[in-house]
Design brief:
11 helices; 7-stranded antiparallel sheet; about 40% helix; alpha+beta; 5-stranded mixed sheet; about 400 residues; about 15% strand
């Protein structure tokens, strides 16, 4: 499995200028390649190959007056052509239905005003990590890196990124060692179901509840103040640029805090449990309701993605159950289907068996049962004995997307 390790960079003023030139050159080559593809498509001609684009857009372009500055940067601009090729392959695979996930559109032109600028250095680009711990980049120099942890193996490539807040990062691509990962996370006999919500971010089938930090809600006052200051600055002025950076940094702090919370919680759940089941929530549907801000603030999709790749890395079982499973309407003890409930009903008593349920804990138990999770001592997943469906449950349809918000 390939993973990315990101570290903060602190380039000197001269190195920032060199990185800015590299970002610009890579962006121009990318846009030229997209334009060449579009022109060929409009003229009903075959798409030019990567070798032809490299010869025309880089080798020959360096000899012209208009593109002579392409020679001031390293061969990193070659990666832009590979990025275009990869983007078009993903686009055509999406059109044919061969690519999983959401549909991907055709590559678009990049702008110098984009919130994210990046360049990638592969192994043959002659980049290295110096004995003093600095990142040596061709035609840029040795850049200071803040190492928060050690790299487990030698990385295959590094991507230098500048975000909207003006921060620089080095993202290293590494290949993980399955044997080392297995030693870090020994097998366990625990299995849980997770119910994601807004009042509590996650409720486990064993009754454990994790409160929602609500990072965006807590930072709204500061964000409102910085955004008001930005709106009062004259467009095109340096004061407006400084105010925009202040707004971007405030939003970056919220996003970083949320991501850190997701990483800590997902790692804890993966370490303590051999099998995990979650519900496949319709985040896009919920984001169109009055709960949109709270849904985006929770960041369920990012958290579930972390659980999924960490489970694959450490040999855990990860299961997503259908979003139309009536987990909040069924008694986890006897299986009685009690029907839809408003969101203000947090506890209810099953009329069939008399069990008193906490709404979220009951939903988490039903998520676990729907996934059929049970774990033996050796860590293998075993499904329980089949249970007859209740009369009201057979052939029933799922609940609307908005009814599973909490």
């Amino acid at each position: 499995m390939q993973l990315r390790y990101a570290f903060r960079l602190y380039p000197e003023p001269g190195q920032r200028l060199a990185l800015g030139r590299a970002f610009g050159c890579a962006r121009v080559v990318f846009n030229d390649a997209v334009c060449a593809r579009q022109d060929a498509h409009a003229a009903n001609l075959p798409y030019p190959k990567a070798a032809e684009l490299s010869q025309a857009l880089i080798t020959q372009a360096k000899r012209t007056v208009e593109r002579s500055w392409l020679g001031e940067v390293s061969s990193v601009v070659q990666q832009s052509l590979r990025d275009v090729e990869a983007a078009y392959r993903a686009f055509f695979a999406s059109l044919k239905g061969e690519r999983k996930g959401a549909r991907v559109g055709a590559p678009r032109f990049k702008s110098r005003k984009d919130s994210r600028q990046s360049i990638r250095f592969t192994a043959n680009a002659r980049w290295s990590i110096t004995p003093t711990g600095r990142l040596n980049l061709p035609k840029i120099g040795e850049v200071r890196v803040k190492w928060s942890r050690t790299l487990p193996v030698v990385p295959s490539s590094v991507t230098v990124i500048k975000d909207s807040a003006g921060r620089y990062f080095a993202s290293f691509v590494i290949d993980t060692d399955p044997a080392a990962d297995a030693g870090r996370m020994p097998a366990t006999e625990q299995a849980i179901g997770i119910d994601l919500g807004l009042t509590h971010f996650a409720v486990l089938s064993d009754g454990t509840k994790f409160d929602s930090p609500r990072f965006l809600r807590r930072a709204e006052k500061k964000l409102k103040k910085t955004q008001r200051e930005l709106s009062r600055k004259q467009k095109g002025s340096k004061n407006r640029d400084r105010a925009r950076l202040k707004v971007a940094r405030a939003h970056a702090q919220v996003a970083d805090a949320r991501k850190e919370f997701h990483h800590q919680l997902s790692t804890r759940l993966i370490r303590e449990n051999q099998a995990i089941a979650v519900e496949d929530l319709s985040v896009k549907g919920l984001a169109r309701t009055k709960l949109a801000k709270s849904v985006h603030d929770a960041g369920w999709s990012q958290f579930v993605t972390m659980l999924e790749y960490k489970a694959a890395r450490y040999g855990r079982t990860f299961i997503k159950i259908g979003r139309f499973e009536p987990t909040s309407q069924v008694c986890s003890t006897c299986g009685h289907h009690d029907g839809p409930m408003p969101l203000n009903v947090r506890e209810w008593t099953c009329p069939a068996c008399g069990t008193r349920h906490d709404r979220d804990v009951n939903a988490a138990k039903n998520v676990k049962q729907a996934a059929g999770l049970a774990v033996t001592a050796c860590g293998a997943k075993v499904r329980p004995e089949p249970v007859l469906a209740q009369r009201e449950e057979t052939g029933s349809h799922g609940t609307p997307a908005g009814s599973r918000a909490a």
